[in-house]
Amino acid sequence: MTDLHTRHFSHIGGNSTELLDRLAVSELCKGWPVYRDASEWANYRSLFTKDAYVWTSALNHQGPSHDASTLRSILLAPEANAIWHVTAWSGAQPIGDFIRMSIAGKSSGASIMHRECGTLVELKPDTGRAVGKMKATITQRFKHHDGYEYDVDCDCRFLFFYEKTKGERGDGIERDEKYWQAAYVKLIYEKDKIVPVDGARAPVFADEVLARYPAGYRYLGAAQSTLGYEIDAKLITGEDERACSKMYQSMERWLEWEDGPVGLFET
């Protein structure tokens, strides 16, 4: 695969302002694994704009929808809300809905963690835009019907689309100075594998089951399907050069201050 960037942005070195901005964005990216895995939902929400969207192993749901102004009370008392029924990988979700689905998933026993493997940032100082590139491993634990446990580890790239703004943050707190927040988060799935928890036992999925999903998340998709989820077989993978190229085009459009979701809902 050739270099997918068609132009250069501030990414290594630079002046002190560029370094500090890239450090701030990199710090925010790390909030995904640190805050979400620890159920620090208020801290997690502060990473995003009021109307942010995320594309991950996002899940269909049935339940109430709330605007950002009610989020703090929801996070303080999530048990007061209707049950969210997690059923499928479904693409884009408003950040508030994604948080509520994450809370519901954890309450029902889902065990999903994230390991951050390295983060760098593309920055365009004059537009106040940045893209955080976080290499990470998603690891989910499953229980086989024979009683043993196994993990599925999925290596991926988180792509965070950041903007520097001032005013009301996504968590409802007003600030006078400009600050960075993520407006969109989308992933590229690279490869995955099954890890036996006891070092010996792991499921063997039939070839026809694995063939339903792209190589980037084949085992994760097969394992998730055993829980009754519908799996989206069209998520972006590292082997899909066309989809990756469109993602990089979206990144560059974002950095150049194009308005709107820069084609992210089209891939």
Automatic annotation (TrEMBL):
Superkingdom: Eukaryota
SnoaL-like domain mapped to chain residues: 18-167
InterPro entries to which the protein is assigned, alphabetical: NTF2-like_dom_sf, SnoaL-like
Classification via Gene3D superfamilies: 3.10.450.50
Pfam family, one: SnoaL_4
Coiled coil: none
Name of this chain's protein: Catabolic 3-dehydroquinase
